[in-house]
C-alpha cells in the first residue's frame, strides 16, 4: 500500500525529472547548484510526507484497491480530495515550480544543452521502466 501511495504522490509531484536518478557528474554542477538540487529533493520529501499525513482511511483504501486501474485510482483520489488537501497540492506545486526556476537560473548554456540532450535521449524511459515494474509486480501478485 505504501508503494501505491508513493507512486500516486510521485505523479502528483513531478518536478525536475531524472536529475536525482542519473549521474550528475557530466553536468559539472557547481556547489551552489548541487545545494539547490539537494534542497529541492528535501522539499519534495517534506511535501510528500505532509500530504500523506492528510490522507484519510478512505483515500488510502482507494490507493490500495487493486481492482481499479491506475487511472481510475487517480481519478477517485482526485475526486475525494478535500479543499485543504487541494490547497496543499497547489502550494507544493507552486513551491516546486519556484525551486525549478531558481535552479534553471543558475545553469550555464553548456549545462542546458547537456540536460536538453539527455532528456531527449531518455524521453519516456522512466515512464516505461515504471510501467514494466508495475506489470511485473501485478504478475507476481496474481501468481500467488
Write a structural description:
The protein is an all-alpha fold and 144 residues long. The protein has one domain (2-143). It contains 7 helices and no strands. Keywords: Coiled coil, Signal. Residues 27-54 form a coiled coil. Residues 111-124, 134-144 have a biased composition (Basic residues). Residues 110-144 are annotated as: Disordered.
Number of strands: 0
Annotation field: number of helices: 7
Beta strand % = under 5%
Coarse morphology: extended
Query: How far apart, in Å, are the first and last alpha carbons?
Result: 17 Å
Q: Calculate the mean pLDDT score and round it.
A: 80
For the record, the count of structural domains works out to 1
The helix content is: over 70%
**Poorly predicted runs of 5 or more residues:** 15-22
Q: Rg to the nearest angstrom?
A: 17 Å
The SSE order reads: HHHHHHH
The profile of the biggest β sheet is: none
Which class do the helix and strand fractions yield? Answer: mainly alpha
Region (Disordered): 110-144
Keywords: Coiled coil, Signal
Biased composition (Basic residues): 111-124, 134-144
Coiled coil: 27-54
Strand-helix topology:
Layout (H helix, E strand, L loop, with lengths): L1 H11 L18 H24 L2 H8 L5 H11 L2 H24 L2 H13 L3 H19 L1
Helix pairs in contact: 2-5
Please outline what is shown here.
Keywords: Coiled coil, Signal. The protein is mainly α.
Features:
144 residues, signal, mainly alpha, 7 helices, single chain
Amino acid at each position: 500500500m505504501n508503494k501505491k501511495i508513493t507512486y500516486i504522490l510521485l505523479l502528483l509531484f513531478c518536478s525536475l525529472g531524472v536529475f536525482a536518478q542519473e549521474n550528475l557528474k557530466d553536468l559539472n554542477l557547481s556547489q551552489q547548484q548541487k545545494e539547490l538540487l539537494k534542497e529541492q529533493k528535501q522539499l519534495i520529501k517534506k511535501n510528500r510526507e505532509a500530504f500523506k499525513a492528510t490522507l484519510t482511511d478512505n483515500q488510502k483504501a482507494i490507493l490500495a484497491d487493486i481492482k481499479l486501474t491506475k487511472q481510475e485510482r487517480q481519478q477517485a483520489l482526485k475526486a475525494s480530495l478535500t479543499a485543504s488537501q487541494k490547497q496543499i497540492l497547489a502550494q507544493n506545486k507552486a513551491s516546486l515550480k519556484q525551486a525549478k526556476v531558481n535552479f534553471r537560473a543558475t545553469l550555464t548554456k553548456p549545462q542546458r544543452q547537456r540536460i536538453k540532450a539527455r532528456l531527449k535521449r531518455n524521453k519516456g524511459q522512466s515512464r516505461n521502466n515504471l510501467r514494466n515494474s508495475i506489470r511485473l509486480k501485478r504478475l507476481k501478485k496474481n501468481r500467488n
